Amino acid sequence: MKSIYIKEIARKLGVKDWQVENCVGLFEEGATIPFISRYRKEKTGGLDDAAVAEVKHWNEVFSEMEKRKAGILSTIEEQGKLTPELRADIENCLVSSELEDLYLPFRPKRRTRATVAKEKGLEPLADKMWDIQLSDPEAEARKYLNDKVLDVEEALAGARDILAERFSESAKTRESLRQIFRTRRIESKATKAASENPDAAKYRAYFKFSMPIQRIPSHNLLAILRAEKEGFLSVGLDADAEKCGNKMYYDFCQERRYPGPKLAEQVRMAVDDSFKRLLEPSITNEIIKEAKEKADIESIAVFGENLTQLLLSPPVGQKRTMAIDPGFRNGCKIACLDEQGNLLYHTIIFPHPPQSEKVKSIMAVSGMIEEYGIEVIAIGNGTASRETEDFIKRVGIPENVKVFTVSEDGASIYSASEVARKEFPDEDVTVRGAVSIGRRLMDPLAELVKIDPKSLGVGQYQHDVDQNLLHEKLDNTVAICVNSVGVNLNTASPYLLSYVSGIGPALASNIVAFRASEGGFTSREQLHKVPKLGPKAFEQCAGFLRIHGASNPLDNSAVHPECYHIVDKMAADLGVTTKDLVGNAELIKRIDPGRYVEGEFGLPTINDILKELAKPGRDPRQEAQEFSFADDIHEIDDLKVGMELPGIVTNITAFGAFVDIGIHDNGLIHVSQMKGAKLKLHQKVMVSVLNVDLERNRISLRLSSQSR
């Protein structure tokens, strides 16, 4: 990568050039984000996952820009118009809009008013006007009359068309106007369609809306642009045409000199036409697009943070689980799972109206708890969730059996997916959905990787933002989460394995097939025997894979095999075996990290090794905790202003947090009611009711207190 790009990425991230250069070099060698941030800290100066991901993003952006530059240079060169100065300007450009400005005068054009004027032979007249080489435009225009140009006004109009296009293609003019437009207000007004369509009501706040484009919150802008796309709003910027025209004319004169009154009138007419017809629509679109790109980044960042918190939700671990997908008329689907999440039994009970088979349902649940040794119960948070939770509490379950409410978002998507069909080819979607609810409680990360993140209900305007950028962010987020936790090589599904650094879907399938044929892995070294898993893939994945019960305890840790010899040396120096050293805090305290620095393995790596040896294979996630909603709140009608209620944060946006308080509709804590707190997904909170809008089913809340 060229040094200008390295320096620009370093500037954007606030890091050193060498950190970016080394990071880019590692990407070119096939390294992944998790591997670089975890095992190559010496080379990157300790850049974390987020910073490494940013380097990767900008590396790809500038790589595409370099390809674009090559195409532009080739096109201009073919036209015979590529000067050394222009080549240098293009090669040193770092902003795509500026690059396109430089290319604009040379871009192949459709037929325009200016090209028509040129075909009539009026370009020499326009040149003289542009260079202020005449004082009487009308007298000069008479020289260009012919069978294509019938009068003086037609000649002057054609020349003005050429001038207008030149103004619109001037990189300096365009950038000057951008600076002005960025200070203006975005305005939206209701269209005729909005008054005729009830679906437009949700955009009522924007029917007559105005706000500085630089200050508009991301969610407001995305909502406005969605409404415009649906035909309910007309959107623009309140550009000051007079101010912009004066600026354009002033810059024109500053570069040359002030023309005489007759020529000044013609130039000013060309300026006004250029602004109104060509520049205002173009620059407006650019600035709104620029603002949307910023809003996209903010919205995607919120989505990524929410997804991280969701994927790293506390698991209950390997416990025998009863999963319940609640319902009224169609009953409650129940799936009983073993410690590994395998389906043992499934059935349907009907404890709620209209069937109300309460006694039969109680006996069924009690029997299943006893027969399958159930340790935890997972209840989906959809329809009839609260009623089912109340019913389970009346069953008289053993005290050691804990009950949890689990988000159903995306469960229906999973149950009808190809992934679910492969896992449960003989079961219908209701059984698959119940199993997914149970597995989400056991290990949210392992189960949720099977579902498109956009279906998990934790985004903000996810369908309106740049889909490529969103896909990149979500893929990186899932990979970072999976690798930060680590994966059990002998139990992980192919879908979870595919997110491990360096593996992907094809190698994941090969690993599962090898595992099945060999009866499981007993060491990381066996990965070398997996078909098509070469040295590079082994380097990238080995440190993130865990083998419980391996003969070498380091195979169940985050210590990379390339550093096993360092640990062996530490143990030998202490006069113990490696097995004795792993997990022995007293022995580890006696180790001087500086003694083991060697080659590419500096203090950051040695310190990471010591931390891992102290708690090998430690799961960074917290332990799941039980939670109960208020017993007397089941419907929105039960709410009263001033009530204090327990709730769970279900989604976080730029404007606030949505909280499940145990009824069908979530309430909203607006940012102004958060008391400066930074909430997390699935966090337990206490809220007070500020307002209940029964007509629109909207609940406004205030944060009272929070717990982890």
Structural descriptors:
single chain; 708 residues; alpha/beta; Arc Repressor Mutant, subunit A; Tex N-terminal region-like; Nucleotidyltransferase, domain 5; 5 domains; 5-stranded mixed β-barrel; 30 helices; 15 strands
What does this 3D model show about the protein?
This protein is an alpha/beta fold. The chain has five domains: 3-88, Arc Repressor Mutant, subunit A, CATH 1.10.10; 113-303, Orthogonal Bundle (Tex N-terminal region-like), CATH 1.10.3500; 321-442, Nucleotidyltransferase, domain 5, CATH 3.30.420.140; 480-614, DNA polymerase, domain 1, CATH 1.10.150.310; 636-707, Nucleic acid-binding proteins (OB fold (Dihydrolipoamide Acetyltransferase, E2P), Beta Barrel), CATH 2.40.50.140. It has a five-stranded mixed β-sheet with strand order 6-5-4-7-8, sandwiched between helices. The protein has a five-stranded mixed beta barrel with strand order 11-12-13-15-14. α12 runs antiparallel to α15 (241-255). The chain is globular and about 105 Å long. The model has no long low-confidence stretch (mean pLDDT 95).
Strand content: 5-15%
CATH architectural grouping of the largest domain: Orthogonal Bundle
Overall radius of gyration: 33 Å
Could you give me the name of the CATH homologous superfamily of the largest domain? Tex N-terminal region-like
Strand tally? 15
Strand order of the largest sheet: 6-5-4-7-8
The whole-number mean of residue pLDDT values reads 95
Q: Please report the number of helical segments.
A: 30
* Overall number of domains: 5
